[in-house]
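Q: How do we represent a protein-ligand complex in a form that can be generated token by token?
A: Start from the inputs.
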Amino acid sequence: MAEQETKKLIFSGIQPTGTFTLGNYIGAIRNWGPLQDEYRCVYCVVDMHAITVRQDPVKLRQNSLQAYALLLACGIDLEKSILFIQSHVRTHAELSWILSCNTQFGELSRMTQFKDKSQKHPDDVNAGLFTYPVLMAADILAYNADLVPVGVDQKQHLELTRDIAQRFNQRYGEFFTLPEPYIPPVGAKIMSLQEPTKKMSKSDTNPNACILILDDKDTIIRKCKRAVTDSEAEVRYAEGKDGINNLMTIYSSVTGKDFAAIEREFEGKGYGDFKLAVGEAVADHLRPMQETYAKLIADKAYLKECYTASDAKALAYSSRIVRKVYRKVGFVDAN
Ligand code: AMP
Ligand code: TRP
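Then emit the structure tokens for the protein with adenosine monophosphate bound:
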């Protein structure tokens, strides 16, 4: 990455906790590919964050490899970017300790994700769940990232990262870059197919609410056909037509057609035709990615080659930064 150091550095992480949804894809992952030409991109499968809630070890390993292969299939190009596995790069845990000594108990107690997750899992309010945002700060600061693409739910953690970085800089001298949130220019919010005022989420208990990016064509079409709409029969983007608006957003995202063109295309046609068209367009759009994914996940040796190379680059880059942090806090040089 050294020769391109004038380009800004983007860091983002995604948890390997199950197959990504169409929402993750349209709102986040699909936008990661095009960033690679403009920025130096460092992407990470954050398996260490995943274990802050109880995970089945066999499943976690599978999910981590699946997430890795899916990100490659969605367009992350290892000639341009780094895509590594968090637990393989020790600097994240190392820096996390130092940053935790520069983070206040009160700050972490105010994090809404901590409050939500402790309510959801009252039998396992572990220390890792509490210090989760410190590890996230370490992910970002170990690369001195300029920009971090995150959804709104992670904005509070990013603000805390800035506060921690600023405090460190005050105590030990200017060192860390204060990272900014990066909101992609495109990247619509996709809503649940069953309750279109709620975000589409893989934790939804109704399987029809959410399209997974590995769903087959029949499943995708079935879910679209069952999507909740309204009692009119007009494909038109308008207030109060949340279900249709959401389907139009999805259709537009995968075909590139604008709302006016979609309205013309379905003039005089019913919702049945429209839903079928949306299902088919989504399935057709996802198919090449699914085919690439199938090849990648069947080739574990290739995947290993990919992450081993990226792990090494991530370690080399972040070690330089963490070594300087060790000096700044007053640790004796190791060699
Ligand atoms: P999550 O699965 O909630 O951890 O989110 C991972 C990334 O996907 C974040 O950048 C979110 O903003 C994005 N994302 C998740 N769900 C949606 C959705 N329904 N619409 C748009 N973006 C989403
Ligand atoms: N906490 C993020 C989420 O749940 C994942 C994450 C971990 C992350 N480390 C990060 C995101 C660093 C951006 C930068 O979505």
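The chain has two domains: 2-187+300-329, 217-294. Residues 14-15, 23-24, 26-28, 150-151, 189-190, 199-201 surround adenosine monophosphate (ligand 1) (CB under 6 Å).
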